[in-house]
Amino acid sequence: MVNPMIVYTEGGKTLRKTEAALANLSFEPLLIVSGKQKHPYTSFQVNVWSTSPTALQGILVSPYKNAYDLSSLMIVYVAGACLGADSTLKMQKEIFRNRTPILQAYGMTEIGIVSVTTLSYNKPGSCGILRPGYSCKIESLENGEPLGPEMQGEICIKGPYLMKGYINNPEATAAVYDEDDWFHTGDIGYYDEDCFLYVVDRLKDLIKYKSYQIAPTELENVLKTHPAVGDVAVFGMPHPIDGDHAIAFVAAVRTVSETELLEFVAERVSPNKQLRGGIRFVEFIPHTATGKPKRRALRAQLIAEMQNSKGTPRSWKMAQKLAIRAKKKPPNELLQSHVKWRSS
């Protein structure tokens, strides 16, 4: 198999050695779980499945996830978006009954596959170790200096398979390559003491709250561990004092209140990462072809709705009401004030 990419983009099937591999990017997750006898791909008793976190999340919240035999699956590869450690372990346990490992990889069209987890080198939530020939540095967002282990910054790459440039677009090429030929990915990440790479989020998607930078994926991964949450998108909404307030769009699979989800998040993240913009319940979350939530589209839609209605976002009003009290109250008490005010 020379170039498998057409398989992933067109929903085809391949044979890898004597194993059947399934690659079907645009699909309803229940076809994999509940369509064993009906869906043509599943008749191959798939051994290797390449998929996205969104697809696995859809199966995780399905009432049919344990109704069918998935024991033929030997490996599940995940790419296209970040999958946190807690979500990985939960999916391995509840979908695959701890029989099938979920492995992640990291790469881009411009740089190829940079790192990958294997059966021997695997940490939940990690994208693995660098492939031979590649070099990586984590660069500070503040001063451009290289950072050490466990410190988040922009992922920069050197390697043998990097593109030469964007055709007829020297400005775009110059924007991603620096004077030392490091390719700036626009992704935020870090590496640990064992040199495992972790991807946190896209640089342009970071929520800037006061002096803090918050990764939407971190909050999305927390919410996805709640049994009522089927899918979620988190992004920042403009705030006149604080910069941005994090807001979550949630597609629920059963009845749940905003208060319950706000408290659920508050117990699991630091005070600066609270969902100060609140939660909005929707029927579904739109995604890109690679499974990433369309955060910027949702943000633009919400801003347009507020402008058309000439309304003020509730989080702005809340900030004005609690601006002084926030400095005096502990996070849990502040959250209760937030919830109480929003409910009135």
Shape category:
globular
Q: Profile the largest sheet.
A: 7 strands, mixed
The H/E string reads: HEEHEHEHEEEEEHEEEEHEEHEHHH
Poorly predicted tracts of residues: 17-27, 33-42, 313-344
Helix content: 25-40%
Number of alpha- plus pi-helical segments: 10
Whole-number count of domains? 3
SS-derived structural category: alpha/beta
Separation of the first and last Cα atoms = 61 Å
Q: Can you tell me the CATH architecture of the largest domain?
A: 3-Layer(aba) Sandwich
Features:
AMP-bd_C_sf, GMP Synthetase, Chain A, domain 3, AMP-dep_synth/lig_dom, peroxisome, 344 residues, CoA-ligase activity, Rossmann fold
Topology:
Elements: H1 5-10, E1 13-16, E2 19-22, H2 29-34, E3 48-51, H3 53-60, E4 75-78, H4 85-94, E5 102-108, E6 112-116, E7 129-130, E8 135-139, E9 153-158, H5 170-176, E10 183-191, E11 197-202, E12 207-209, E13 212-214, H6 216-224, E14 229-239, E15 243-252, H7 258-266, E16 279-281, H8 295-309, H9 314-322, H10 331-343
Parallel strand pairs: 2-3, 3-4, 4-5, 15-16
Antiparallel strand pairs: 1-2, 5-6, 6-7, 8-9, 9-10, 10-11, 12-13, 14-15
Folded structure, characterized:
- The structure is a single chain.
- The chain has ten helices and 16 strands.
- Strand 14 and strand 15 form a beta hairpin.
- Helix 7 runs antiparallel to helix 10 (331-343).
- The protein folds into three domains: 1-44, no CATH class; 47-202, Rossmann fold, CATH 3.40.50; 206-308, 2-Layer Sandwich (GMP Synthetase, Chain A, domain 3).
- The chain is globular, with a radius of gyration of 21 Å.
- It is an alpha/beta fold and 344 residues long.
- The chain is 27% helix and 25% strand.
- The chain has helices spanning 5-10, 29-34, 53-60, 85-94, 170-176, 216-224, 258-266, 295-309, 314-322, 331-343; strands at residues 13-16, 19-22, 48-51, 75-78, 102-108, 112-116, 129-130, 135-139, 153-158, 183-191, 197-202, 207-209, 212-214, 229-239, 243-252, 279-281.
